[in-house]
Amino acid sequence: MGKGRLEAFSDGVLAIIITIMVLELKIPEGAGIEALVPMLPNFFSYVLSFVYVGIYWNNHHHLLHAAGSVSGGVLWSNLNLLFWLSLFPFSTSWMGGNHFEPLPTATYGAVLFMAAIAYNILQRSIMATDGCSSVLRKAIGADWKGKVSMALYLSAVGVAFVAPWLAQVIYVAVALLWLVPDKRIEQAVNQN
């Protein structure tokens, strides 16, 4: 299978994930501004998850652009990532619908953590497939952003049971860390 087909399939799944998330936003009961106030947790959760899906979509595009070839391991690693991303609508809706209670907030962080692990596995699978000449291996180096993100997600899961608001701050901080696109892969691809 070529990279183009894998990327097209992944793009389709990500589009469906965003569609499901937006369909979870319910129409408010009433036409006044006061009808929107109870919906703020759902809306905040949706915006945060939309940003995360956008970050994964952007980085996934660069990741596949840097890949030299696609193996069976890359296909399964990609499906693993898409599985965890497909849980975003559930965890987003549960967290927002329950106004950031501890367990839904921790579950949201656990899904983010597992998606980050799956992304790391996909990176490693691509590097293993491409061997020593892997453009991706040269580009990501020690991948400090990935490691810091996973540590922050894991800490937020624990923090959610004590201070759910602080877990939310951590989730936003990690999103902000990744909001600026990672230029390492683009630069490495352009050098080859």
Automatic annotation (TrEMBL):
Q: Name one GO cellular component term.
A: membrane
The answer to whether the entry has keyword Membrane is yes
Listed transmembrane segments: 9-27, 39-57, 64-85, 105-122, 152-180
Does the record's keyword annotation contain Membrane?
yes
- Protein origin, superkingdom: Bacteria
Q: Keywords, A to Z?
A: Ion channel, Ion transport, Membrane, Potassium, Potassium channel, Potassium transport, Transmembrane, Transmembrane helix, Transport
Q: Pfam families this protein is in?
A: TMEM175 (PF06736)
* Membrane topology, from the record: Multi-pass membrane protein
Q: Which GO terms describe its molecular function?
A: potassium channel activity; proton channel activity
List locations, semicolon-separated. Membrane
User: Which transformation does this protein catalyse, written as a reaction?
Assistant: K(+)(in) = K(+)(out)
The UniProt entry's sequence similarity note says: Belongs to the TMEM175 family.
In Swiss-Prot or TrEMBL terms, this protein is called: DUF1211 domain-containing protein
| Originating species | Pseudoalteromonas nigrifaciens
